[in-house]
Amino acid sequence: MGSRRTLILIGAIVIGGLAAFLTMNYVKGVESESADKNQMVTVLVAAGPVAKGSPADEALASQSIRTAQRRRSELPASAVVRPEDISGQVAAVDFGGGEVITSMMFLPVQELTGSKGSSIDEGNVAITIMVEPDAGVAGLIQPGDSINIMALAPVAPGGEGTRTESLSKAAPDASTPWTLGQPYVYAFQDVKVLGVGKNLGTPVAAPATAPGAEPAPAAAPATDTNLITVQIPADQAPLLISLRGAGLYLTLNRPDYEAAPIPFVSSLPSFSGEEGRSPYPAASAEAVAPAGSAGATGQ
């Protein structure tokens, strides 16, 4: 009889402990879920009115759209958490202020208007040129870049003008001059790239992520890097077309590049390598010289 009571008591204790354990886990789960819902997340919000079609970059610069803290439970599934996620796009709707920005509220301008011509600056036209990979900076050019366009510029033997059939230079021993190829000229400088292949720089949608989570990188679309579409004033487009057979060569510029006169070279000057110096200006060499070196001290 005593052993039965003992077993019943032990069973009651076990059941009570199990019930307490389950109750504790349930309470912890509820508390965790509540804490998760009340977690503050940084998202983009409209701080004031923004008209449909307004560039996101302008709205961000003017603080009409800014980052703010919101509870996770109050956010739509597609809330935008980073300014760069809408950079280069335009507002697809009118904002009155206070809205949490979602991915569908900003779109590429061509999607909003239905015309790819919307990406061309006023007074310009789009035109496509074809270059070989080595002449197109090995495919490193992207929409939005600034480039220079060089063209082959020889004249027929006996032709007038300063341009020559090939670049030559007197040999050190006064023998037959060196001939090292045909001359090129800078035909256009600081030209804006609109597209590479069929890619106009339209962002590729990345997989949706919950607000506060690290967004997955978007996959870049495949492009034909031999086809470069640029914008250029309408009156200069015929000049560019006339250079189709002139062995076009491109250079990729820094974002702060400024066009400047670059004279046509009709004869070979001394190469920097011949003179034992770097091709970069001395000021640039000093700027990157290690502290204490001869370049930095002027010794």
Automatic annotation (TrEMBL):
Q: Which residues form a coiled coil?
A: none
Record key words, sorted? Membrane, Transmembrane, Transmembrane helix
Leader peptide range in chain numbering: none
Chain segments carrying region Disordered: 270-299
Give TM segment ranges.
Answer: 7-27
Q: Which InterPro entries match?
A: Pilus_assmbl_Flp-typ_CpaB, RcpC_dom, SAF
Output compositional bias ranges, type Low complexity.
278-299
Asked if Membrane is a keyword of the record, the answer is yes
| Keyword Membrane annotated | yes
Recorded hits in SMART domains, A to Z, give: SAF (SM00858)
Question: What is the recorded name of this protein?
Answer: Unannotated protein
- What is the source species? freshwater metagenome
